[in-house]
Specification:
This is PIN domain-containing protein. This protein is α/β, with parallel strands linked by helices and about 150 residues long. The chain has one domain: Rossmann fold. The chain has 7 helices and 5 strands; from the N terminus they run βααβααβααβαβ. Helix 5 packs across helix 6.
Length: about 150
Amino acid sequence: MPQKLKVYLDTSVPNAYFDQKDKTRKQITRDFWLKIRRSQIFISDLVIKEISATNNKKLRNKLLRLVKEFKILSTVDRKITKLAKEYVRRKIIPAKYLEDAIHIGVATVNHIDVLVSWNFEHIVKLKTKKEVNTTNLSLGYDELEIIEPAVF
């Protein structure tokens, strides 16, 4: 039996599932949700932390229920921290967005096949993908596919 694809979701993906402002993004995310059922889905404790900071209690609870079945990866790991800081040092991710670098680092260190995000500013960009993979390969890690839900 073929191995299941390992998929990491950053916080932007579950957030988009309940998006009230962009109905198209919401529908694309819901369609994506149906497609990922055949994959191994991962989030991190950082995703839980970011969801837990949602001010709207009803929305926060819906988000937590949405991701409750997914495997949670720990970001408390020297390798992840070091790799995230390297992405910042190489100016792949701006220093003030270290958490975006941590999402990429946790996916890389845990040998995830694909990181899925709606963050086009710092994560889902051709430049970011190329530089992340150049960095990963130079440090002995595998390449990481970075995509938006629409192309899954």
